[in-house]
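To fix ideas at the outset, we first show an illustrative case, written as a sequence plus integers encoding its fold:
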Amino acid sequence: MERLNTKLYLQNCYIMKENERLRKAALLLNQENQALLSELKHRLAKSAAAGNNNNNAAAAAAANRASPKPSMDAAAPAQAGGKGKPAPKPK
């Protein structure tokens, strides 16, 4: 009986030691994962900002080519209808 208890005790010690080793490894992996996720989010945000800047510049250039700016003597939008009705309120 004494020998069985000693054997079980040693197995238990080995299991606890292995659990501690695995816990430390999991902690390190989690820290590395968090760092990589943070870097990925930073790169995506940077890429999205650069993409938005390029898209905004391209859209502005296309809008400038497609529709020229109205001249100073153009009718105001409320008067464009010619019926004297006020312009609809924006929602």
About this structure: The helical segments are 2-66.
